[in-house]
């Protein structure tokens, strides 16, 4: 046995001891202490994730505690596993253990006898932490013990709901199903040969839903072969998989004469058969006639969600049905069923001999709920019994799957901790940066000083920079007033209050700032690539896409969980040397500096390829552009763009407070004399407190004056109507459930050269006209003084994004306590049994997405209006009507299921849930139907992996996503959407992330080939989801409604309203 194997064996034995005796026995403590002080097993224990986080007290080297105000109980760094040496330990916590000639207060305190009661409290807390961990481990082992020893193969037909099935099956079976795309192998035999090498048996197959028809080879791949060559293996087909079984066994698969049904629910009744008598026999008696009761413990007429245009049709007469090898076992009434009983649609089928079953509806949908989960349980139970009967029966030839961790993520805690490759993940131990935070004195916590508004601060400090950003909760001021009237326990107040508390802004003025511009497949070949611009104008050109760059760069930054609070003794003094630097116990926001920017819609090419590189599917992107630039692309607007923000300002709308965030390269000592960050904080704080608060300027709208500005639509109303008709055809043929069709409106805004108008002025008008919780202003090289480089060559990019988005795409929050495990926030959805397999003290991350589907215009009631009360009541009626709209509920449900699927790729199985389904949120001009989906992020994945799994946002594509995107690309004539339909926000240095969906947005760029410095090209994207229930005129009107607030703001800007 080599040294590595011996070490691992020792670690395993140590771990067993720890679990059996949870560190309450003195001998166990002594045993661990000897190992640790020898310094031989630090990294091994940390990789286990068990010992590193268990609290126990032993004597520690004096220098480890010499300068701490309160001692730690662990004599080693919990993340690196290295012995703690004074300065190193202090550095990792933001302390300073040396005298300061600069006048900085030093934190230096030795342990005194009087602190022993404090140590006792710490030990008690450590005992509680250990007890909590033991309880988590007990719960995890209890759930794991109930899982079935069944290995399933999940054949993916490129559906957007496959990973919902994956998540359910992973909570039922000990091993998650192996997911293989239907065209990953040329044949079933090739798949079998590939899997045989790993010597693990497949116990059943699930064939996923998907777009298309069962008779089309590209739609099903090897699925029909799987049915043909596995007559004795349990198979469950869902939707398209159900139709594949019907087609293979000679039933007729046809377009439903009752029309497509997508996102709607129906009651299903099933035929009661003699399953119980068969299945109660001892299954070790080799009963080859064992049947699967799919509907065991499920009531008759249970509600299911349907997404299908095709049906499996059986002959009319019973004699004819008997001639087929399959039989129908469940039905629902069609919406147009006659009273004489006709119009029943087959909802489930079964082979008469082979263990093959199909369901037409979607048991994995959030709308089907617990009974859908039971169907999968019943199939898995049956597969387990069948496996036991046949003692590992292998369907004609040995069927194997890959046993590596890449394909089968073992849930047993030991294997996960020992073997899981976490090398790509950023960790606290390899943090590259210090994060410094200064809270500016003033605001509501100090009523003597009122703080300037975000608009004033951006105008005064950032507007003149070449590159700048403003993540603007422009509804925040109103919500701040509302929040004061709410108790801390009231969670049912304003639905967007939690999204409207903080605004973040910054620019390119920091020494570590760098700008990343990615020119992707939508641009000319000679322009493609990634350019990183460093301070001083030095460029680095990389042959990478933005996803690859972020996947490599974010882990290099490490995780900076802690922050150092900088407090100046005299904020008004020019002396930057007199300050204190202390660990900041809590910050009310997640942002810690990092990458701020956007991913345009065309990054879809890169995320698609990246996903296929990590899953068993072909990597070719058939629709990528091999030649010239995509139609409609603006060559001045990159496919994606980011700033690494090392200087940021954060405004708390609720408390009227400003925070300054500075990022420095990791250092042991923060010295006021040499730190540019300290100097920046001091100067900025002085500027903020010296600013005279100015109320936001009011728009000077000219009454009864019609704007002369006109907009051109990329596709006319007639063309848009034709596109909607084409969408209906694709949906009817089963190619898609929902298509998010969009259009572009554009105009040229011309100003005299002496005018002071700029894209920032447009944004300030927009944020007043259409305040939104996820609004943003982002500008690259778009000031008139910065459109050319130092050598007088034109800058590659020059644009501004003026965004008033109400929609959150994805957020990742750090250190959320057991949010996905307590079951209390699962809301509307049935929650399968779940316990995280990661029971260590490492930070947990919760991902959340809030899709919007369903929009209606509000009835605006102004105070003083004689019909004020009537308008309020009418506005409420409009909201209630939206809430009950069958069409909008269907649209919303489809996207909720799609996003559950996307998150299930990167979250711990079983943790994805829906705390709010189809809620109504009211904004300045519209009511919208919004849902919330959350999940616990699998520790293997980073925020950029989450983006990759989910991009583009499903609310901007439709479902199934891949097929829908291809159809939309054809419908929209290959035109680039640009930043519209993409996402904008930040990747924080502590692992957090927040991204919006770029909608309700104007993209502003200088007029190309113009001699004027003050002419602007403006483009606005707008669209809507097309379903089988959509009306062409209504959809066109909805598209214009969504664009209306931006159109009016651009017109107002053009008419020189709101400029100073």
UniProtKB/TrEMBL annotation:
Q: Under which pathway is this protein filed? A: Cofactor biosynthesis; tetrahydrofolate biosynthesis; 4-aminobenzoate from chorismate: step 1/2
Concerning PANTHER family, the annotation shows:
AMINOBENZOATE/ANTHRANILATE SYNTHASE (PTHR11236), AMINODEOXYCHORISMATE SYNTHASE (PTHR11236:SF18)
- Please give the superkingdom of this protein's source: Eukaryota
Tell me its family.
In the C-terminal section; belongs to the anthranilate synthase component I family.
What are the Glutamine amidotransferase domain coordinates in residue numbering?
153-379
* Enzyme Commission numbers on file: 2.6.1.85
What is the protein's given name? aminodeoxychorismate synthase
- Species name for this entry? Chaetoceros debilis
Q: Name one GO biological process term.
A: folic acid biosynthetic process
Q: Which reaction does it catalyse?
A: chorismate + L-glutamine = 4-amino-4-deoxychorismate + L-glutamate
Which Gene Ontology terms cover its molecular function? 4-amino-4-deoxychorismate synthase activity
